[in-house]
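Lab notebook, bench 4. Still working through the backlog of constructs that have no structural model yet. Next entry is a single chain of 295 residues. Request: give me the structure tokens for it.
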Amino acid sequence: MTEVLTRPAGRRKFELGKSRKENHPWEIRVVKHPERSTSSHFRAAKKTAKSILAELEAEEADPPYGPGPWEMHHGGSLWVKAADGWRMYRARVGIEWSAQFCADPAKVDRLRREAAELIEAFPLTLPALDELGYKRARDLLDTPITDADGVEAWTDSLFNSCVPLSSPDHSGVLPKAAGEHHYPWPIKAADFFRYDDFELWVTLPDGTNAGVTPVGRRGSGDGHVRIVHARHGTPAGDALAEAQRRRMMAVVPPDSPIALAAFEQQIPRGAKSASGPRRTRGRGSPNGARRGTPS
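Model written out:
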């Protein structure tokens, strides 16, 4: 089954149906996904990751990106066993499942070598994986990747496919949540270390969303915020692109609705400016991940 996704002239929403022509015609075909069976590599990796996460929960240790339920993200998951338990490092890059079909085996092999070098520094790792039944780990780390089969095995392995993210953090879309699949990692990453009472993602007056950060350290009383991500083609996106072209920052004043929204939990109700003394209180984040606490 094939449908054509079109955006009629003068409309903002996309529609499924027959093609419509414009001055600059284009179309995206939304097709039925080919049957995608879970590979044996991914089944084994997920089973092992779930066992590791169960150990972390039993030890009351913090999972890498907060509590479950988790979805396994192909994001470069380098699991190692240290003397005090399991840890997960991120690889230089992760290989998303669909990206394997453009992956150069020689470049993926470099990821394998880098993973092997890291895991060699944690000698408890391979014996612990053996105990969990993931006995293919040694072969994956020792076998050079030279073809598409090797790329597939690595892509779906424990060392790439098992970054445990909540569904919102994995594939959420604003205004509900900023998923890693849709928002740039340098900005999305702040969701995992920001203060609970600072809103990283705000809704702009035009209804789109932006990522913002303070311009000064906590306690400075400065209510200006810097726009660090905005949708291309919007006023905020255009301003951000122009600022970057000039090697400058796109900053909004403390009395703007953007700054007021970002600092909403730190300023008195009804405040007209985000500058000035702050009240700080922690609050659980919308996607359930554990965040920093106020200083």
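Notes after review: Residues 1-7, 14-21, 282-295 have pLDDT under 50 and may be disordered. Residues 40-165 form one domain. Flag for follow-up if needed.
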